[in-house]
Design goal:
With 614 residues, the chain is α+β, with helices and mostly antiparallel strands. The chain is built from 10 helices and 36 strands. Strands 5, 6, 21, 22, 23, 24, 25, 26 and 27 form a 9-stranded mixed sheet that branches. A 5-stranded mixed beta barrel has the order 2-3-4-8-7. A hairpin with a 2-residue loop joins strand 5 and strand 6. Helix 2 packs across helix 4 and helix 7 crosses helix 8.
């Protein structure tokens, strides 16, 4: 098996299977033209890989991980065991069978550590972090970390569908050979040590000659949400009578949609036939990193054949969910501090941003728009590390605690219990930490070139604390990456606000608190929406619109006669009418929640207002 045009494969005779690898001429002799094209594609696509990262990471994250890695291996996840580390946090120990080694010196079976897991009724989720499940196969990028009991620590994972030889989560690359070539170009070697062969190779597996190419004829619905058990139905042909190793792949919200990512067989799949697949749109955040984002989808069948849809699926937002005990579990906000979550700044964050109002503004963005009960403590902490200690820490980490290519991270701790509707995980603590080595912009003014906007970063990480995941909307605070000089502080109605409203409403009405206090909606009576949502309203003197936010009606106070138009965030007109007198009421009970704009034109001039529907 040739991995790439310049990749040297060294056979290891002490592999577990003790197989001597023999390659037939048809496997070894491939057309030179193919590899010329392969090299060209590698050169073109390598820049796409190195330009992206995850969760507010810097553009060099991919390269840095590979260069600093102790080992890079291709293998399969075996047993998993969760444990408390010496720092009191939860980690997962994963046994990996190694099939190929691209860098470093490791055994045929190794143990690696991933952050987060479940011990008893306590769960921790670290965002971002590597999440894998038993049986997954792919490429692991591993780093040494003595704080994790001297085991190798997984800093990245790229799943592989062995039969189709396609790679997931590698931005801009799907072919495994091209991906190997990209890795080799970065680490300076194209040598791969072959430890064992896949079962498909040993058993002589090959795609069935009678199997027709899969086709997608329709997807319904085309606008969905992820992690909410929304059912997506994919119609077509050639999917196979059984799922087997087949999967549905979505555009990856953790890299802006540049790669595909999909779940293996599990609780998200409701049915799989040759002509129809029904699946819950996934946003799994424990033991699987699949967060579905807007874009086309791909179906890969058990025999390795793939088809990509011509239709685009719009995913408005992704709510975190948990795959646990072969089932789907819901996550819920509760009332830990006066009905919500009170954050404590550490000394470094206070010294950088304490007088700017930046943190308070970020908290108000979420509370005013979604009703989440976020508040700020008057006390200051000296802590620089996350721990389950009853304190919702928001601050700068200790130097070196966060990788140099990462801006920040959120650690959520949950308490689990069984209910009549299955297992529920209540959010009992939120810790948000940022990289102190970053050139942070700590003003609410527009950030200057070369600096990273701390306001956007805090809003983003508080969104993860709000149990929302990334989306593929480039101007959203929940977009995966932030570049120097950028700012994205406005919450969008159909993504962040709608998702947050769903979480808060469900949590406030939650009847299964499992011993915790139910979440209490935050007080948004003093919110200045024009300030928080970044729009300067243009209005004539004496004209106003109230209430804002509104429920069943809005009142227009005007001078003179004229007309009005109410439009949604996409610019679509939903209501229009004639204005007479000084007060006009518009009935709005039929409108969905979200962001709206009302434009009025009267004898006195033109006015515009930005409104939020609860």
């Amino acid at each position: 098996m040739i991995i790439g045009p310049r990749l040297k494969i060294r056979e290891t005779r002490n592999s577990i299977s003790n197989l001597r690898v023999h390659f037939s001429p048809e496997n070894l002799l491939r057309p030179i033209q193919k590899y010329s094209i392969l090299l060209l594609v590698t050169a073109l696509q390598l820049s796409s890989v190195t330009a992206m990262g995850q969760c507010l990471m810097l553009p060099n994250a991919f390269e840095t991980r590979l260069l600093e890695a102790e080992a890079i291996v291709e293998g399969k996840v075996g047993l998993q065991e969760c444990f408390f580390g010496s720092d009191g946090n939860i980690y997962t120990r994963n046994t990996i069978e190694t099939y190929r080694v691209l860098k470093g010196s490791v055994g045929n079976t190794i143990e690696i550590v991933t952050e987060g897991g479940v011990v008893g009724d306590l769960m921790q989720v670290v965002t971002p972090s590597v999440q894998v499940c038993t049986g997954q196969y792919g490429i692991f990028v591993l780093s040494a970390d003595v704080n994790r009991v001297n085991s190798l620590f997984a800093s990245a994972f790229y799943p592989i569908h062995e039969r189709s030889s396609t790679v997931e989560m590698a931005s801009g690359i799907t072919d495994r050979e091209v991906f190997y070539e990209a890795i080799g170009n970065i680490i300076g070697t194209h040598r791969i040590e072959l430890r064992r062969l896949s079962e498909d190779f040993v058993n002589g597996w090959h795609p069935s000659a009678s199997r027709s190419e899969p086709q997608i004829s329709d997807i319904y619905p085309l606008e969905v949400t992820a992690g909410t058990q929304t059912v997506l139905t994919i119609s077509g042909s050639g999917f196979g009578a059984e799922q087997g190793n087949g999967k549905v792949l979505f555009r990856n919200a953790d890299d802006g949609g540049q790669s595909f990512v999909g779940l293996p067989e599990g609780p998200h799949y409701l049915s799989w036939t040759d002509t129809e697949i029904m699946i819950y749109v996934p946003s799994a955040t424990l033991y699987n990193s699949t967060v579905a984002g807007t874009g086309d989808i791909r179906v890969t069948t058990d025999n390795g054949l793939s088809v990509q849809s011509t239709q685009q699926v719009t995913i408005d937002y992704a709510k975190s969910e948990v795959i646990y005990s072969n089932g789907l579990s819901r996550t819920m906000l509760v009332g830990m501090n006066d009905g919500g979550y009170r954050f404590t700044l550490n000394a470094d964050m206070m010294s950088r941003a304490g007088g700017s109002g930046l943190v308070e503004d970020a908290l108000m963005h979420w509370m005013c728009n979604t009703g989440v009960n976020y508040s700020l403590s008057e006390t200051v902490s000296n802590e620089t590390a996350w721990a389950y200690d009853g304190v919702n820490l928001l601050g700068m980490s200790a130097p070196g605690q966060i990788p140099p290519y990462q801006l920040g991270r959120t650690i959520t701790t949950f308490s689990g219990c069984g209910t009549g509707d299955g297992i529920q995980w209540n959010l009992v603590e939120i810790d948000v930490l940022f990289n102190p080595a970053i050139n942070w912009w700590t003003s609410l003014a527009q950030p200057i070139a070369g600096s990273f906007d701390l306001s956007t970063s805090i809003i983003h990480e508080l969104g993860h604390g709000h149990l929302l995941q990334h989306n593929n909307i480039e101007n959203s605070p929940m977009y995966f990456q932030l570049l120097a000089g950028q700012q994205r502080r406005v919450l969008l109605p159909h993504s962040s606000i709608s998702g947050g409203n769903l979480l808060v409403e469900a949590s406030v009405l939650n009847t299964h608190t499992c011993g915790e206090v139910a979440h209490v909606q935050g007080d948004n009576s003093e919110c200045d929406y024009s300030l928080i949502n970044g729009v300067d309203e243009d209005r004539s003197e004496g004209e106003s619109v109230y209430p804002n936010p509104f429920d069943d009606a809005i009142n227009l106070v005007v001078k003179g006669s004229g007309t009005y138009r109410l439009v949604d965030v996409a610019g679509k007109m939903v209501y229009e009418g004639v204005l007479t007198g000084t007060l006009h009421t518009v009935e709005t009970s039929a409108l969905p929640s979200g962001l709206y704009f009302i434009q009025m034109q009267t004898d006195e001039g033109e006015s515009s207002f930005k409104l939020i529907k609860n």
